[in-house]
Write a structure and sequence with these properties.
With 133 residues, the protein is α+β, with helices and mostly antiparallel strands. The chain has a single domain, classed as Alpha-Beta Plaits (2-Layer Sandwich). The chain has helices at residues 15-25, 65-79, 97-102, 114-117, and strands spanning 2-10, 27-33, 36-39, 44-47, 53-60, 87-96, 124-125, 131-132. The strands form three sheets. Strands 2-5-1-6 form a four-stranded antiparallel β-sheet. The protein has a two-stranded antiparallel sheet with strand order 3-4. Strands 7-8 form a two-stranded antiparallel ribbon. β7 (124-125) and β8 form a beta hairpin. The longest helix is centred in the middle third of the chain and has 15 residues, at 65-79.
């Protein structure tokens, strides 16, 4: 199965509004990616407050994804009235289920199984061209 990943970069104050909008039209909730800085030689991190945040959501590619994507884009257009610095453009990409589990992301609409949580024994390449161990 393939998924359409929807990503919006937004100001921290607009994260709740963007999350609610994406959650309304997508499956399995949203993922919020806050910018971080690694400290103590990568053993710890701190969140960079005030920096733009990425909000991700996923749609199954089943023939209905384009309608939902358009509804999200229209909703984002309304949120831009808060100011263009608060809500960025909608970015999309296709995520293949094989890469999804290799990257250890939970699959929307499915429970994560133990098998998908085990480390991989050999490197494999995903659709982004990266090699994962």
């Amino acid at each position: 199965m393939h998924w359409l990943e929807l990503t919006v970069q937004t100001h921290p104050e607009a994260v709740e509004s963007v999350s609610e909008l994406l959650n309304r039209y997508t499956t399995g909730g949203v993922a919020i990616e806050e910018p971080i800085e690694l400290i103590d030689e990568g053993q710890e991190y701190r969140v960079l407050t005030g920096q733009p945040v990425k909000v991700h959501a996923y749609l199954p590619i089943d023939g209905k994804e384009e309608e939902a994507r358009q509804q999200v884009a229209e909703g984002l257009w309304h949120l831009v009235s808060l100011g263009p610095q608060f809500v960025g453009d909608l970015q999309t990409r296709i995520v293949h289920s094989r890469c999804w589990h290799r990257l250890r992301h939970p699959c929307p609409g499915r429970r994560q199984t133990r098998r998908s949580q085990r480390p991989l024994r050999r490197q494999q390449q995903c659709s982004r061209g990266k090699r994962h161990r």
